[in-house]
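Sync notes, pocket subgroup
Present: LS, DG
LS reminded everyone that the earlier model was apo-only. Rerun requested with 2-oxoglutaric acid included. Inputs:
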Amino acid sequence: MGTEMSELSRRIVKAVLMSMGEDSAEKFYESDFSNCHGYLRINSYSPPGSSTVDGKEVEGLGMHTDMSCVTIVCQDEIGGLQVRSREGKWMDINPCADTLVVNVGDLMHAWSNGRLRSSEHRVVLKRNVSRFSVAFFWCFEDEKVISSPDEVVGEGGARIYNPFVCREYLKFRESSERGKFDKVGFTVKDFAGDLKQ
Ligand SMILES: O=C(O)CCC(=O)C(=O)O
Ligand SMILES: [Fe+2]
């Protein structure tokens, strides 16, 4: 399964690079994304209990962004995955047979100088049943220095993040309670600085 997911992730990254309209998508793929690796996480959500009875939603997984380039999610038929729009509105990502969900993660966000936005998402449990999902995180190698290439930043554009080592960012997120979940503002911006502001 790992091999198929890796192959799918490679194809997704290539398609995303092409969508950025870069003539040099192939070049960037080779120079920046060819050493990516992935890991799989199985998420199991227990039935939330009586708190759902009065129609209240229970957060199964708080709002967060993924620490990946892209994440592929396979959710079961229960539903509850939501993504936050730019305006801050929560939108349901309804389960659909034979359909996977792809999130852009923080590493791609930083690499693309914010052109590709890291998806802010969460899981709400609306029904009193168990829920399962499988997430495959496709990430840069730990030692990679993430710095948006000049061509991506564009002529006259400004780099909005300081270059950073991937491992250091993962450590930053993992070692900090705030960084893990819930505080979506506490991500690349807080770690590598927003040079624009
Ligand atoms: O359970 C889901 O549908 C999403 C899981 C998720 O966002 C994650 O594992 O990072
Ligand atoms: Fe996630």
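DG: Residues 64, 66, 71, 121 surround fe (ii) ion (ligand 2) (CB under 6 Å).
LS: Residues 2-19 form the longest helix (18 residues).
Action: DG to write up.
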